Structures are given as structure tokens and as C-alpha cells.
Amino acid sequence: MAQPHRRSRVRARIRREASQIILQELKDPRVGFVTVVDAEVTEDLRHALVKVSVLGTPGVKSRTMHALADARGHVQSELGRRLGLRFTPILAFELDESADRISRIEKLIEKARSGGGEPDEASADEAPPAGGGSESEGSDPMGGGSAPRP
Q1: What is the pLDDT of residues 2-47, one digit of tens each?
Q2: Could you give the C-alpha distances from 15 to 121, 133, 145, in angstroms and in order?
Q3: DSSP state, 2?
Q4: 91 DSSP β-pair partners
Q5: CA 129 centroid distance within chain
Q6: Distance in angstroms (rounded) separating the CA atoms of residues 89 and 124
Q7: Dihedral of CA 33/15/96/99: which sign?
Q8: Alpha helices in 50-137 (DSSP H)
Q9: In sequence order, what are the residues at sequence separation of 6 or more whose Cβ sits closer than 8 angstroms to the Cβ of residue 15?
Q10: DSSP 25
Q11: Alpha-carbon distance 22 to 113, whole Å?
């Protein structure tokens, strides 16, 4: 089992080296604009999950993820050569859509600030309050009755 500081150093190197390999060495035309966002490594350093963000439409994202899956062996072997570890971590790629969520939230905030009318489907996905009623009906959201707490 790797020590925590060693694990975090390996994680940072995997993120940096995987990014360089993908951006500079992969010549696959299906690979779009890719950013390596993060890398997670298991405690024994045998497996690594590389989280990537892809700019573009869902089709572009899908093609890019398929291209990365096809190039996994090359990226993994090059990463093993660069890291110099006893065991090369087995790579997996995951699409990180946090940038899309942040962008959507920023647009909703800007729309709310400008007084922009009806909420769109992103806000319609929110669940109604628990219990189905409003808080003005005298229900305590903590479920402890209506008596004030000391």
C-alpha cells in the first residue's frame, strides 16, 4: 500500500503526463479538444481513473471518448515508461462534465439577475419540498413538531 504523500505525487504525475501524451502524441482525428481534469489512483497504485473534459457537442464528446478508449494501451505504455514505477497503472478514462454543469449554473444565475422570465428545464428537474406542502402550513422541516426548541 502506498503512503498518502506518494500516492498524491503519483496522481499528479499521471495527470500531467497523461495530458501531455494525449495533447502532443495522439494523432487520432477523433480526439477533440481534451483537457485532463483529474486523476484518481487506487491505494496500491495499480489502477488509475483519468477524468477528462471535452469541449463540443455530445457527438464530439462520444467520438473523443471512443478514441481515448482505443488509444488507452498506447497512453498506458507511454505513461509506464515515463513514470518508472514497478507496475504501470491500468488506465480508464471518464468524461467529466462538471464544466458543463458550472456553465449551465452560471447561465441560470445570469438569467435570474437580469430578471429573465420563465425558468427552463434545468430548474424544473429540482425535486419538490419534502412532505409536498409549503413551510407556511406550520410543518416543521425537522419533523420535531411545532414546539420551539430550547
Answers
A1: 688 899 999 999 999 999 999 999 999 999 899 999 999 999 999 9
A2: 35, 47, 51
A3: -
A4: 48
A5: 28
A6: 42
A7: negative
A8: 58-70, 72-83, 98-113, 121-124
A9: 36, 38, 39, 50
A10: I
A11: 39
Cell numbers representing residue 99 in the block: 464544466
In 3D space, the residue among 21, 138, 38 whose CA is nearest the CA of residue 75 turns out to be: 21
Q: What is the dihedral of CA 26, 92, 42, 6, to 10 degrees?
A: 10
**pLDDT tier, 137 (very low <50, low <70, confident <90, very high otherwise):** very low
For the segment(s) 4-98, the CATH number from 2.102.10.10, 2.30.180.10, 3.30.1360.20, 3.30.300.20 is 3.30.300.20
**pLDDT at residue 77 greater than cutoff 70:** yes
Class of residue 30 by CB neighbours under 10 A (exposed 0-12, middle 13-18, buried 19+): middle
pLDDT tens-place string over residues 97-130? 888 888 889 999 999 998 865 555 554 455 444 4
- Distances, alpha carbon 39 to alpha carbons 14, 19, 77, in Å: 7, 10, 17
